[in-house]
Amino acid sequence: MNALYPSLQDRSVLITGGASGIGATLVENFVAQGAKVGFIDIDAGNGNALAAALATGARHEPLFVHADLTDIAALKVAIEAIRASNGLITVLLNNAANDKRHSIEETTPQTWDLGIAVNLRHQFFSAQAVAPDMRAAGGGSIINLGSVSWMLKQGSMPVYLTAKSAVQGLTRSLARDLGPSNIRVNTLVPGWVMTDKQLRLWVKPESKDEIAKGQCINQPLMPQHIASMALFLAADDSAMCTAQDFVVDGGWT
Length: 253
What we know:
By secondary structure, the protein is α/β, with parallel strands linked by helices. The protein has eight helices and seven strands; from the N terminus they run βαβαβαβαβαβαααβ.
């Protein structure tokens, strides 16, 4: 059973990329805490289905807003819709990303820019958009999702690895600038999480052998493990945690 965090009840929470994978588990967990959850995703089918499935019995029905996060103007409109419905946003989970495999040779200026847009750029502009809310509320928590992949020197996705390494620099920059307003900024760094997408596209028998050798705890890393850390970082229990990297990877790195 998950811990209950009273400080999350009725809090306005924004989750990007919340329609599937880790993001959907984040949405489910914050709704279960009684938070007012708004989530954004390009996948309208899964987003609407998740919101409907979680509405029954929820203290606050989750709000799904369809938007392409690589379009910053559309992102700002989506955030405004969530603010208008749920009030000042005081928790932001910058979760959206796409770890599409790609080689050095096939990378073009266009695919480079797109990779940065989907894996890094929206994190900054989401934080920029909610920072005034958090200042007005007296504080808040921004949680940027990183990845251990660049730490492990994984190949076959140079743009993704570059973007994910930059997330930790973004976290430290925002933490310094926003700290005087009691806004905490941390990086939640997952290992190889066994989402449906990973299992369908990337996790092969040899991958499982690699995981077994790398992790100190030889058990599947699940989206719930990431959500449990996210709840702590969003709640007042982590009040003096900022500018830090919280790695949840079974001891791989």
